[in-house]
Every structure is written in C-alpha cells, then in structure tokens.
Amino acid sequence: MRALRVFLLFLKRLYCRKTFFLLIMVLPILIVSIRVTSSGSDGIMRVAIFFPGESSAYVEQLEDGLKDYSDVINFQMVSSKREARNLVRTRKADVAWVFKADIDEKINAMVKGGDLSPVVTVYQIRKNSKSTISRLSSEVLAANILKHAVYSAYEGYIRNTLGISSDAVSDQEIRDVYDEMHPDRKLITLSYPDEADNEDIPYLMAPVRGIMAAWLLACAFVAAIYTVTDEKNGLYGGVNRRTKIWMSLAGGLAVMINAVAVFILGILGAGVFTDPLREFINLMLYTAAVCGTAYICTMISCGNLSTLCILMVAELMATIALSPVIAGVRLPQVQWLIPANMYLKGTHSRPYIYRLVIFDVAVAGVVLIKEAVYYILVNRKMKRRQNGRYF
Questions:
Q1: CA pair distance 38, 68, nearest whole angstrom
Q2: Crossing angle of the two packed helices 241-270 and 2-15, in degrees rounded to 10
Q3: How many CB atoms lie within 10 A of CB 344?
Q4: What confidence tens digit (pLDDT) does each residue in 117-154 have?
Q5: 3-state SS, residue 47
Q6: Mode of pairing for the β-strands spanning 95-99 and 120-124
Q7: Which of 274, 291, 250 is nearest to 348 (CA)?
Q8: Is residue 187 part of a domain?
Q9: How far out from the chain centre does Cα 263 lie?
Q10: Is there a single domain that holds both residue 230 and residue 378?
Q11: DSSP letter, residue 48
Q12: How far apart are the C-alpha atoms of 247 and 227, rounded to whole Å?
C-alpha cells in the first residue's frame, strides 16, 4: 500500500511537469499530422496525363488501372499537351504522359502484326530521367499499357496461331484460363515476411513505427534524467539504498506506463497494429530494453546530466541511422546494440524477438553485476570501519 502511495505521488507530480506533457503530446500530434498528410498526399511523384480525342473502352481501362497507384503517384488529368508540358517545365509535375489519339488502333496493330508504334510520349526533366522514382513511373506506365494488350494477344494466339475454334473452346473458357494463370496484381504492394500484402497501409505511414520506437527510447532517457535530477535535488536524502532504488523505480515506472499507453494508442491510430500477442510481447521486451539502455547510460555518465544528455542524443542518432526507421544502415555487428532495430524487425520476424530477449538478459546481467560489485565494496568498507581501518 505504501509503494502504491509513493507511485501515485510520483504520477501526480509527473503530470505537473510541462516537459513531460509536451513529450507525451508530441507523438499523437505527429501521428495525426502524418495520417492527414498520407490521406491527402501528393504521393512520391506527380504525373500529368493527357488523353486526346474521345474516351474509349481501352482508355477507361487504363485510367482504372492507374487508380490502383493513387496512394503512391498523384495523377493529374489535363486538357491539352501544352498544359502537360508546362506543368513539367514549371516543376508542378515530375512527369507528363501524353497519349496518342489512336491508341486503340495502335495497340490492336501491335497485337495482330507486331507493329510497335509509340502510343505515349513522356516529358520529364532530363536530370531526373535516371532517378529511381522516374524508373518506377515508367514501370507503372508500361505495366498498365501492356496489361490490356496481353489478353488480346493471348486470344489471338489461341484462335489464329493454334487454330482452335470457338466450337472447341468457348470465349468464356479462354477467359477463365487466362484469369487463373494471370491474376490481376499491383506492381507495387507493401508486404511483410510473415503475412499477406498490406495494401491498406499508406506508404507514408510505413516509417511511423520506427519514429515511435525512437520516441519511446527518448521517454526512457527522460525518466532517467528525472531520476538524476531528483537525486541532485535531495529527494532521496535520508533513505537507505534499497528504498532509494524502489523510489527511483516508481518514478521511472510512472513515466514509462504513460509512454507505453500512448505508444499503444499510437500504433492503433496509425493503422500499423498487427497480432495482439506479438505486439504485447515485443513492446514489453523493447520497453525493458530501452529502460536498461537508459540505466546503463546513467551509470556511464556517473550521474552527470550533461553527459547523460549527450549519450541520449548519440543513442537516438544511432537508433535512427542503424534501425529501419526510414532507411537503416546495414552494420550487423553494431545493430545488436540498438534495441529499436530488433524491435522493428521483430514485429514481422520472430528471430529478432529472440535477439531482443538476449539483449534484455544481457542488460539485466550488467545491472546485477554492478549491484553485486557495489554490495561487495560497501560490505568491505563497513568491515574496515568496524576493525578501525579506514584506508
């Protein structure tokens, strides 16, 4: 009961800290901002499209196919070739696709006689022509143009080349075989090793979990900074070491319970929540890992706030650089020391959860060794005092 009362006092004092309130509010504001941005995003590329002449069945199919990539590429329909080129020239569009007026006839001629006449003209800035995004747009364009020509070529091969009449095999049977052997799939999908494609997750939401992992690490360091500050202000004065440890744990627990609660709400709100059991186990192991990391850094700093803040910044920079927050650097020998790397990969790969367990055990071992050494030194000092030996 006394421990609960101490915890509630720490919790009450915590809610009066403006810095903690700002730290907690950062994550919801960030997630809401990214969510709004991704829902109305311009995508990673802007493409201006011009279809001359009247709309046809093929053009409608092409437009429908391009809509599958609207979360990645922002397509803007324009009314003239001049407008499309001007958008590229003024950098309001990255690429312009100007289709030919007789696109249906050209596709049919290609299928029947192998006539490969151009059906679209692409305008883009020359220096961006070899970029990855530019090549991505070209793949999307080619895939959608050819997708609707493939069936015509397939049907023509069966009827004309193989000479199979409609009496032997009906048009519906040909369509059924085609649909079975050629499933309609997107060129770009977001998927993970342990589950099916996650096409409902906007691409801008992909790094949210990594940002949240770095934020939780910052919360652990803030808890350590609060503890060091309290000790310097004499909060633990007049109590024995065991009571001091339990009081500091209560203060840290007050911070981390709030942080974990906001973290869970964050992954639910961001739409990146996966299996509940795996999420819980992985998050608890990661929370223990970041708390252990902050404790070890406090030991290294010897209670010096400036040194502890420097270590916090260094750890956060290493986490962002060496973990798949946005684009992780591959340094396997060093990444073992970054708990966020194992947490993020462990979300969809079980072996990394086991590595996180090993990391937690190693940190616990370091803490136990430190406490054992302290206990031995204190007992030796007390024995020397009892024997009248002070040195």
A1: 15
A2: 60
A3: 25
A4: 777 888 887 766 666 666 777 777 777 777 667 777 77
A5: strand
A6: antiparallel
A7: 274
A8: no
A9: 14
A10: yes
A11: E
A12: 9
Contact status, residue 336 vs residue 356, Cβ threshold 8 Å: no
Mean pLDDT rounded to a whole number for the chain: 78
Among candidate residues 126, 104, 129, 272, the one with its CA nearest the CA of residue 200: 272
Query: How many domains are there within the chain?
Result: 2
Structure tokens at 20: 């903690």
The Cα 35–Cα 381 span in angstroms is 59
DSSP string, 200-216: TS-GGGTTHHHHHHHHH
Cα(353)–Cα(350) distance, integer angstroms? 5
At 43 the three-state DSSP class reads strand
Question: Residues for the chain: how many in total?
Answer: 391
Q: What is the domain range of residue 72?
A: 44-181
**Residue 188 within any structural domain of the chain:** no
Average pLDDT rounded to a whole number, residues 198-211: 63
Write down the residue that tokens 């029947």 correspond to.
Answer: 112
Q: Is residue 391 part of a domain?
A: no
DSSP string, 296-333: HHHHHHTT-HHHHHHHHHHHHHHHHHHSTTSS----HH
pLDDT tens by residue, 209-230: 888 899 999 999 999 998 888 8
The answer to whether residues 223 and 115 belong to one domain is no
DSSP state of 79: S
Q: Which range, 304-313, 347-356, 363-372, is most confident?
A: 304-313
Please tell me the predicted confidence (pLDDT) of residue 199: 45
